[in-house]
Design goal:
Layout: H1 2-27, H2 32-51, H3 57-83, H4 89-118
Helix pairs in contact: 1-2, 1-4, 2-3, 3-4
């Protein structure tokens, strides 16, 4: 069930990241941090998509765990963009909330699947 939720949320997040990247490049002339965010923010969904066709449950957990690491990295870049005033508090709240939600979902999926492997 959670996999059905996390995949579309990761796509929606990637789209938001892409649009934010375009905004930061054109309006703020910021290229370095935004490129890092683009890479990590779009990798989340790609890894979730890969996990859908994992070779085993262990492979599934591995790919979802990497997606979790990418989500944590994206959260870091969003924080840096906010703290360096490329994003205002208002601009960053919603996308950071989306990122936090992805992190919580991925943590839950990884923990649940790992727990099921031990049974």
């Amino acid at each position: 069930m959670k996999n059905d939720v996390v995949a579309p949320k990761s796509i929606a997040f990637a789209i938001r990241v892409i649009n934010l990247y375009k905004h930061l490049c054109t309006e703020k002339k910021e290229y370095v941090l935004s490129k890092q965010l683009l890479r990590s923010g779009t990798a989340i969904g790609a890894l979730i998509r890969e996990a859908e066709h994992a070779e085993s449950k262990l492979d599934f957990v591995h790919k979802m765990n990497i997606a979790l690491k990418e989500a944590n990295e994206a959260e870091y870049w969003l924080l840096l963009l906010k703290e360096t005033n490329y994003l205002s508090d208002h601009e960053s709240v919603s996308i950071r909330n989306d990122c936090d939600e992805l992190i919580r979902l991925l943590v839950s999926i990884v923990k649940t699947t790992r727990g099921n492997l031990r049974k």
